[in-house]
Amino acid sequence: MDCKANKCIKCTVEQCKHHCSDENYCSLDSILVGTHECNPTMEQCTDCMSFDKK
Q1: Whether residue 2 has pLDDT greater than 80
Q2: β pairing state of 33-35 and 19-20
Q3: How far is it, in rounded angstroms, from Cα 12 to Cα 26?
Q4: Which residues of 5-43 are buried (b: 16+ CB within 10 A; e: fewer)?
Q5: What pLDDT is recorded for position 1?
Q6: What does the H/E/C string look like for 5-47?
Q7: What whole-number distance in Å separates Cα of residue 3 and Cα of residue 46?
Q8: Does 36 score more than 60 pLDDT?
């Protein structure tokens, strides 16, 4: 797959189809960050809502 890395969005989630595997970047133009908590208080409470499983 020819991946166009967006140097503004770093990513290490290799299971996502938008991950550029040769570099730790996302290929999307933008991402949506969300949460699964009512009152997020730490980074583990946030999620990349743009994730798509490979």
Answers
A1: no
A2: unpaired
A3: 9
A4: bbeebebeeeebebbbeeeebbbbeebeeeeeeeeeeee
A5: 55
A6: CEEEEECCCCCECCEECCCCEECCCCCCEEECCCCCCCHHHEE
A7: 25
A8: yes
